[in-house]
Amino acid sequence: MIADERGLGLTTTSEAAVRAFDDVLHCYLEYRLRIGPAIKGLLGADPEFVMGRVLVGYLMMARGTPEGVVDARKALEAAEAHAGDHLSRRERMHLAALQAWVGGAAQRACRIWEDILVAHPLDLLALRLAHFQSFWLGTPRRMRNVVVRALPAWDEHVPRYGDVLGMAAFGHEELGDYATAERLGRCAVALNGEDMWSIHAVAHVMEMQGRHGEGLSWLDFAPDRWADRAAMRTHIWWHKALFHFERGELDAALDLYDRSVDPGPDLFYIDIQNCASLLARIEFMGGDAGSRWASLAERAASWADNHQMAFTDVHTIVPLAREGRPEAQRHLASLQALASAPGEEARRLRDYVLPVCHGVAAFYAGDFPRCIDLLLPLKDDLVPLGGSHAQRDLFHLMLLESALRGGRFDLARSLAGERIVLREHGHGGWLKYAEALEGLGDVPAAAAARQRATF
To answer: CA–CA separation, 218 vs 423, rounded Å?
Structure first.
């Protein structure tokens, strides 16, 4: 058994395999494009290294595609073939977590990672996976707490301490503790300026507090700054575009979409989320996305039967429904079939994902009353979809837009009123409030609201 860089034992006789394991983990933490060659190096260093195979299986699952599940199952089978009593309890628990995740039991995998961390709080792999999967499963309190429980075991002398601070920062942000989140996030970035997750955590704080100008400065990177990174780079640029959007700078947001948010031919799951939500927001505010919708829908069509991640499902339907693609109905039908199964994930599909997807479809069909009927009951209970407050805001905006387009100006006034109180510095909230007041015939109040929308 040889120790990794934080002193945790790994069952192998190859020092090179352990160093390769550490390197692959670094690539994962920093979204490095060189992770493919790093994985090859890991597998070649010791073909019987069980934790190496488990790590590869985890990374395949993290792709969020059916093909990723197939590849993860192959890695799992290879790990199982070399597993035995010689493995440590921690390694056997990791193997069990991968078995659960590949088998569709992501919640069980999270619970196993949490159990690992009780005995081994320096297990950064378990920590990152529990943090991320809690995020996508819509359990933000667990997402934060799994990190802060481990945090006292860490300090600046432990390698990758900044990553843990950044995860804690994001967890605090999603639970509304913005001061703590920003403090921890800035500390993390000071320790490692390459830590995109921590940079992103601070950007979330600025978004939620309406500090859009500061956000643009915080994300003022050269266009090629993250060229050597995987899909997280497009999400960083999405955040920058969102700051432009909140300032009413729609052309700047669209320009950033074209240059940096849209990745081109191949979409990763977060690209569907980024692109669909940004184009929809811009269109809600009267911007013209033009042919971008058709291009996005063409590429998103292949994701219609994916269903590996609920939060991607509620975004995949957006371009498909917007463009009237037949895949939109296929997407809904296959989701319905999955929702009919037993289990906690099927229940989440029934209670949250399907109503939101049907609401999106109704919106783009022009059936605004149905959209309202579906989205309004969930307005304050969208967290189980997964994702962040900033991301889920798309569906609050769609509900507000449905009220305006459907002539429900009283409801629109109420929804926009909530928005301008909670997001006082958002350009769009005041404009939508003005629209609602105009619909109700209160022209002087509408004019005053429009004045508030200027910068």
So the answer is: 20
Amino acid at 282: I
Asked if residues 325 and 301 have their Cβ atoms less than 8 Å apart, the reply is: yes
Q: How many CB atoms lie within 10 A of CB 258?
A: 9
Query: Could you read off the pLDDT of 268-312 as tens digits, one per residue?
Result: 999 999 999 999 999 999 999 999 999 999 999 999 989 999 999
This prediction's pTM: 0.96
Please indicate, yes or no, whether residues 290 and 351 belong to a single structural domain of this protein: yes
* Residue where a domain terminates, one of 60, 84, 104: 104
Query: Into how many domains does the chain fold?
Result: 3
- Does some domain include residue 137? no
- Three-point CA angle 73, 79, 82, nearest 5°: 145
- 11 beta partners: none
10: β partners: 2
Q: What residue numbers bound the domain in which 445 lies?
A: 407-452
pLDDT digits 0-9 by tens, 205-222? 999 999 999 999 999 999
- CA 31 – CA 197 distance, rounded (Å): 9
